[in-house]
């Protein structure tokens, strides 16, 4: 994927920012939900992507960075997913060990959001449910739900990044370009997208 071109930025200004510079207020639905495993990528790629897109006046949701003391964690996360236009799933080595990551991914897909997978130091075939003992045992419903979500995301074309070989700035540029293109596509299709009757649940 190429770096930003003038035509891409003009399209973004026309479609995403057509009402002028946005004031990033807490009550405005987010444009992009960043689904990630914090211990793997919050201080590296996920944090950089959040800051980069925020500087373009694209409102992103990155868990605690997007909340204030007193906010209810799961209610705000579920609300942000339902309200977002595009989801970015940063799939990292310990991603599948997190019930919360799997719940967020499943909810994005259930509500039919456009999801951009970023395979960060993993390949799609490595993504599968992992249990670390009895405390990680899932109900049959959750196991089916999370397995389905991982199967779905494995079959979506995304970006593959090996931090030992690839260039960080190129990943950030490619990911940002993909997000902007997806936002333009969603707005041209007529947002809101994927408002469904799915009842969100807190992960067990």
From TrEMBL:
Pfam families per record: TIR
Highest taxon above the source species: Eukaryota
InterPro entries named in the record: TIR_dom (IPR000157), Toll_tir_struct_dom_sf (IPR035897)
Domain TIR: 28-157
BP terms from Gene Ontology: signal transduction
PANTHER family in alphabetical order: COP1-INTERACTING PROTEIN-RELATED, TOLL-INTERLEUKIN-RESISTANCE (TIR) DOMAIN FAMILY PROTEIN
Descriptive protein name: TIR domain-containing protein
Record organism: Trapa natans (Water chestnut)
């Amino acid at each position: 994927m190429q770096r930003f071109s003038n035509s891409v930025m003009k399209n973004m200004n026309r479609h995403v920012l057509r009402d002028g510079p946005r004031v990033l207020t807490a009550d405005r639905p987010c444009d992009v939900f960043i689904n990630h495993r914090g211990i793997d990528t919050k201080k590296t790629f996920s944090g950089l992507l959040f800051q980069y897109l925020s500087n373009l006046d694209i409102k992103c949701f990155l868990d605690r960075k997007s909340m204030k003391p007193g906010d209810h964690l799961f209610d705000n996360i579920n609300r942000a997913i339902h309200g977002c236009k595009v989801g970015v799933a940063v799939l990292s080595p310990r991603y599948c060990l997190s019930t919360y990551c799997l719940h967020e991914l499943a909810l994005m897909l259930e509500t039919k959001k456009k999801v951009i997978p970023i395979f960060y130091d993993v390949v799609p075939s490595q993504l599968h449910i992992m249990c670390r003992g009895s405390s990680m045992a899932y109900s049959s419903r959750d196991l089916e739900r999370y397995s389905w979500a991982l199967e779905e995301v494995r079959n979506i074309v995304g970006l593959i990044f090996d931090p030992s070989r690839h260039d960080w700035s190129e990943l950030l540029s490619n990911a940002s370009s993909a997000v902007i293109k997806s936002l333009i596509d969603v707005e041209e299709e007529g947002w809101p997208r994927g408002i469904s009757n799915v009842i969100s649940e807190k992960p067990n």
